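Sharing in case it's useful to others searching the archive later.

Someone asked me privately for the predicted structure of NAD(P)-binding domain-containing protein, so I'm posting the question and my answer publicly. Question first, with the sequence:
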Amino acid sequence: MHFLVFGATGAIGSIFCEKALEENHTLTVFVRTQRKLPTEVANNGRVTIIEGSLEDEETLDKVSRCGADAFVSFAGPPYGNKGKPLTDGYKAQIPKLVSQGTKRVLILCTPSFKGSYDVASLKWRVGEWTMKAFPSTRGQFDEMVSVGDYITSLSAEEAKWTLFRVGGLTNGESRPVEATFLGSGQDNMWISRASVAQWVMDEAIQDKWVGEMPYICN
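And my answer, the predicted structure tokens:
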């Protein structure tokens, strides 16, 4: 399978790329800074690297023509995020990808974005209040809610999307993953980065959660 990966220089993205190469997949990685890629990814012959930004229309056109079967993004807004650059980037990139034949789309989000199956619970409310309370994290909250709004607005004709939501991230090996909803009683707050990477790779192939927004945890 050919994956287009955003966020490949981050903790989850780099693990995903390494796992994908171990399983003989092909990668196109879209990065701002190539030197931040793990050496084993950057030097692999099955990896194409495109350096640029989400604001560069010419680069987005080049990315859209990479021939990927699936677009996977582990990108998230930084502390102090202002505006909605990630949402705007998805709005610019995904239609281009779809027009070139890339239909499978898997996008990282957080419990800040709520779904119709979610049940209100204190632990998630506290987290939401905390994100909203501080200027340094309020921008992150607004951006991720905006990402969720956009991805879930896509029709089946536009893309086979999955919005996978994660809570607290830990290090360590890949472990069994529970795909559920907030307030289910199975919604543990933690998941290892390796578990996220493996779950996304499996989901891209198995298509169990197309058009859904599961919360995943260990």
